[in-house]
UniProtKB/TrEMBL annotation, chain A:
UniProt keywords, alphabetically: ATP-binding, Nucleotide-binding, Transport
Protein name per Swiss-Prot or TrEMBL: ABC transporter ATP-binding protein
Protein source organism: Nitratireductor aestuarii
Keyword ATP-binding: yes
Lineage: Bacteria, Pseudomonadati, Pseudomonadota, Alphaproteobacteria, Hyphomicrobiales
Gene Ontology CC: plasma membrane
Automatic annotation (TrEMBL), chain B:
Species of provenance: Nitratireductor aestuarii
One GO CC annotation: plasma membrane
Protein name (Swiss-Prot/TrEMBL): Branched-chain amino acid ABC transporter permease
Keyword terms, alphabetized: Cell membrane, Membrane, Transmembrane, Transmembrane helix
InterPro entries in the cross-refs: ABC_transp_permease (IPR001851), LivM-like (IPR043428)
Length: 248, 309
């Protein structure tokens, strides 16, 4: 069962004459765990912005399940099952940690449910389960703004997964997380993704993480795909060693 | 629960004060009418939006009551309900346009629309009575026309009941996903979109509720004062509502009412012997901004400002 879930075709966008995406093609298959690596400013975050409708490409298309989603808004794309975790955590800082997750869960509610209390045992249990998975249960009732950097990152991912997406785009999930906790986080993440059968694309700077968890790696440079393949192949490539591995 | 009991206690105190000193009834009822409108403003403040034009919905509620009375509808409860509905409809229409704007644009566009309404009310002499405004005949209660004192007492007591009902409804709204999302608009609109909650819908609901509350307050005010004037829509009135909301605190539903009663009392007592009124209000506002970021309401609610009532 290997058909492209998400497909990007000839995406182009530039900022002030600098091409951040220059004819990008990308396919991610159902159930896959795809990593994107590349030097700073290569256009990795821009690619996620393009795939989620936050930016519109000047040329090219994005397809989900073979259907065009290029023109849709981030909200409509999220509704169709693509969730996103951000490079810089995007949280509701005036809300408690658990509210952040419950609000994400609440996106599935109908209008009537939208008007009944959010903090109910059923929603609370559902959110707590996710928080426990990400070791955030002790912080459930803290304000999100009081979380330390690394935990914000975890919460940001938990909020994305609470949407129960088919595909999640993770922008440097392990950045800001201490080196010791990094692999723990990745294990948690992998378990969560497998359990919920979520396909994932993640941008990553830590090559050890990529080597260990990615099934396929896309190497990104200056707005285009330099090469792609299995991690062990890609890391042999001289160009990759020069542009990415050496640079990190 | 604790906040509920405190709120109930406060209502009982206000009720006793009003009943034992009937001359206070007019003042307290009017304060509550403004408090309702200020609560509307406070709802939008939760989303980080400042409307410098919300007196327009107060005026719409008030003029709706005046027109309906002139056209033979005199029942108190019907007038309140119909006027609120008219303000609600106005809120949906104006809101649909406003929710696309933020920050200074939102503030100024609300101001602009309210000024248009103000000038229409002032200029359309044949319809609105121009700057003279319109008289509002004393309302009846289920077909009975009360004397002045009875009328004031009934209006006062009704306003307390309305405050209680509105308090319940709005705090339930604050705790619902829609209400929580409203607060989230303030902190992270992008994330809200990314979890597929429509920001415009969340804001439109908030805007409409705030317009409805302002209209309800305006309808009360029209009947309490017995007269409506274009000044009700003037921008200084909108400013007054923001003042009340900030002074009272936007953390919970009680804040705007505390702020409104406080201001109305200060106004009455200070204005009666000096013109120290502005100075007292200014000093109180400074005090609140520096020492009570969650408003006077923060004095009784020591808890973190998240949950309401
Ligand atoms: N909204 C924007 N407006 C202007 N320029 C932008 C915008 N977004 C990205 N860029 C530019 O596009 C290029 C690619 O940026 P992008 O953030 O996609 O890189 P990245 O690969 O995610 O880098 P990093 O590893 O630092 O996160 C950079 O030169 C950046 O300055
Ligand atoms: Mg980036």
């Amino acid at each position: 069962m290997s058909k492209p879930l998400l497909k990007a075709e000839n995406l182009e966008i530039s900022f002030h004459g600098v091409k951040a995406a220059d004819g990008v093609n990308l396919e991610i298959n159902e159930g896959e765990f795809l990593a994107i690596i590349g030097p700073n400013g290569a256009g990795k975050t821009t690619l996620l912005n393009l795939c989620t409708g936050y930016l519109k490409p000047s040329a090219g298309h994005v397809y989900l399940d073979g259907k065009q989603i290029t023109h849709l808004s981030p909200r409509q794309i999220a509704k169709r099952g693509i969730a996103r975790a951000f490079q810089i955590p995007q949280l509701f800082t005036d809300h408690r940690v658990i509210d952040n997750v419950m609000l994400s869960n609440a996106a599935r509610l109908n209008l009537w449910q939208m008007l009944s209390p959010l903090d109910r045992p059923r929603y609370r249990d559902e959110a707590m389960e996710l928080l426990r998975m990400f070791n955030l249960a002790d912080h459930a009732n803290d304000l999100a703004s009081t979380l330390p950097e690394g935990r914000r990152k975890l919460l940001d991912i938990a909020v994305a997964l609470a949407l129960k997406p088919r595909l999640v785009l993770l922008d440097e999930p392990t950045s800001g997380v201490s080196a010791i906790e990094r692999f723990g986080l990745m294990e948690t993440l992998m378990t969560a993704l497998r359990q919920a059968k979520v396909t994932a694309l993640f941008v990553e700077h830590d090559m050890d993480v990529v080597r260990r968890y990615a099934e396929r790696v896309l190497v990104w440079n200056r707005g285009h795909v330099l090469t792609q393949g299995r991690p062990e192949e890609v890391f042999q490539d001289q160009r990759v060693i020069e542009t990415v591995v050496g640079a990190v | 629960m604790r906040m509920f009991l405190l709120g109930l206690a406060a209502l009982v105190i206000v009720a006793i004060a009003g009943i034992s000193a009937p001359w206070l009834q007019f003042l307290l009822s009017l304060a509550i009418a403004k408090g309702l409108a200020a609560l509307g403003v406070a709802i939008l403040l939760r989303a980080g939006l400042i409307s410098i034009g919300h007196a327009m919905f107060f005026a719409i509620g008030a003029y709706a009551t005046a027109f309906l009375t002139r056209n033979g509808i005199t029942d108190f409860v019907s007038l309140l309900i119909l006027s609120t509905l008219i303000a609600t409809a106005a809120g949906v229409v104006v809101g649909a346009f406003m929710v696309r704007y933020r920050a200074i644009f939102f503030a100024m566009l609300n101001l602009a629309v309210s000024m248009v309404l103000f000038s229409l009310l002032s200029k359309l002499y044949n319809i609105t009575g121009g700057t003279d405004g319109m008289r509002v005949a004393r309302a009846t209660f289920f077909g009975i026309a009360p004397g002045e004192q009875t009328f004031e007492l009934i209006v006062f007591l009704t306003s307390l009941v309305v405050v209680m009902l509105v308090g319940f409804a709005v705090s339930a709204y604050f705790r619902s996903p829609l209400g929580e999302a409203l607060k989230a608009v303030h902190t992270n609109e992008i994330r809200l979109e990314y979890i597929s909650i429509p920001v415009w819908g969340v804001l439109l609901v908030g805007y409409t509720i705030s317009a409805a509350l302002a209209g309800l307050g305006g309808s009360f005010a029209a009947m309490i004062i017995g007269h409506v004037l274009p000044e009700m829509a003037f921008w200084t009135e909108s400013g007054h509502l923001i003042l009340v909301a900030v002074l009272g605190g936007i953390g919970g539903v009680a804040g705007p009412f505390i702020g409104a009663i406080f201001l109305e009392l200060v106004h009455t007592f200070a204005a009666s012997f000096t013109d120290a009124w502005s100075m007292i209000v200014g000093a109180a506002l400074l005090f609140v901004i520096f020492f009570l970021p969650s408003g006077l309401y923060g004095l009784i609610n020591k808890k973190r400002g998240g949950s309401a009532v």
